[in-house]
Amino acid sequence: MNNPSADRTGVDHSPRDSAVLESLFRPQSIAVVGASDDESKYGHKVLRNIIEGGYEGAIYPVNPRAETVMGLKSYPSLQAIPDAPDLASIVIPAGQVVGAVREAIDSGVRSLVIISAGFGETGTEGMARQAEIRDLCARAGVPAVGPNCMGICSFRHRLCGTMETLRSAPGNVSFVSQSGTYGITTLNYGLRMGVTFNIFVSSGNEAVTQFSEYLEYLGRDEDTKVVMGYIESLRDAKKFLRVAPEVTRRKPVVVMKFGRTSKGSMAAASHTGALAGSHSVYSAAFRQCGIIEVTRTQDLLNVTMALSMQPPLRGPGIGIVGASGGFAVAVTDYLEEHGLEVPVLDEAVQQRMRTEAGTMPYASVRNPVDLAADLRPEVLLKCADIVLRQPSIDGLIIALPSRPFPPADDSMREIERMQRETGKPVLICYYARPEGIDTIQAMTRRIPVYRSPEEVGQVMASLWQYGAYLSRRP
């Protein structure tokens, strides 16, 4: 009996098995259907990004009207390529896509990225084309990204298969976005902050491979420490509710759900052709599954960066050390409003800070520790070390003073050392000058840096949300 999920080698590649996504993110060869020397064409942009990104596998341009494209031998069709590529990126008009998908499957291509638009997001005719693609790939067991997407990146394998140029040092954050432009913009902003990425997926309409399958794959991927997601709708809610708790047991997942309002839901439907559903239902599902939900792009990146660098909080007790009383009050309010505690330190501990650290007589060392405009780095660092080692303290926020700027490299190494030795999360806040955060973040890849009491407080609350979830797991 023929297996409808088997390729020409006889191997079963069901698209519902996340292991089949290996050919998407670790392909040994790539074809670009629609490759062109015309710089205005998306097929040119995708091929150029693959080449200039340093991809080391075989690259096959497919264009029946060209002998070469960008200096590479061009093939008139996928079937003309001697060895079936692992991945085919399809960048041609919508009316030609179904035929290209059928040819790819018949040729033994193992996975597809369908960048072309004009499908479920456009109306009845486009929905019919999308359904045909879905049926073809499902019968063949071939995973497919899109249609109506910006492509994929696998930075560890030097694959940039997107319409826009993306470059990242190999990192431990993987990002699945149902919006292409928003996803690429967010990724670029994250790179500027100091977040480094492993895999990026612009999943588009998700006609074949859906969010839950990417999540399942990334949950098993050893190079991914944190999964970040932009969600407009979940077409596979039942599988999501099964997969998500399995993933969050191993690694954190941070998402932003758009379409939270009725108008936003309508916009989401016109964007990817899917119904968004009640946001309250989504939020309840996220909480149940241990997923951290945020509502702002900055928070999505802030929380993800912290979880990529720091362990989750194992308790609610937070220490705060800085030179500003106003900062101490602001961050204490935010923490306690979100279920965290700022416990008063024992008298003996307070005395140690006065004697060992040499704080000013008028400094407040109860916790939060307000050094009262004392800008000596050695005093700040010694107090931070003493506070972090207390049993009642589960995490620490350090507010760096305005001077010296930039802080000494030895100071940053000392903060990294105390975090490493205690195993407790440490966050830095620097709010003295707008450009300072980028300078300080560039000095450390271990400690995340934030620009306001609200940001650092919100991130610490998210570390506790995930830590508390893990503590409740059997």
Class of the largest domain in CATH? Alpha Beta
Tell me the quaternary state.
single chain
Order the strands across the largest sheet as they lie in space: 9-8-11-10-12-13-14
How many β-strand stretches? 19
User: What is the typical, i.e. mean, pLDDT?
Assistant: 92
Largest sheet report: 7 strands, mixed
Describe the structure.
Helix 3 (94-107) runs parallel beside helix 4, helix 11 (325-337) runs parallel beside helix 16 and helix 13 runs parallel beside helix 14 (409-422). The chain has helices at 22-25, 42-52, 94-107, 124-140, 180-193, 211-220, 237-248, 262-272, 279-289, 297-309, 325-337, 347-357, 377-388, 409-422, 436-441, 453-472, and strands at residues 29-33, 58-62, 68-69, 72-73, 87-90, 111-114, 144-145, 151-154, 159-162, 173-177, 197-202, 226-231, 253-257, 292-294, 318-322, 369-370, 395-399, 426-429, 449-450. It folds into three domains: 1-148, NAD(P)-binding Rossmann-like Domain (Rossmann fold, 3-Layer(aba) Sandwich), CATH 3.40.50; 149-309, Succinyl-CoA synthetase domains (Rossmann fold, 3-Layer(aba) Sandwich), CATH 3.40.50.261; 312-472, Succinyl-CoA synthetase domains (Rossmann fold, 3-Layer(aba) Sandwich), CATH 3.40.50. By secondary structure, the chain is of the alpha/beta class. It contains 16 helices and 19 strands. The chain starts with 21 loop residues before the first helix and ends with a helix. A seven-stranded mixed β-sheet has the order 9-8-11-10-12-13-14, sandwiched between helices. It has a five-stranded parallel β-sheet with strand order 2-1-5-6-7, with helices on both faces. It has a five-stranded parallel β-sheet with strand order 16-15-17-18-19, with helices on both faces.
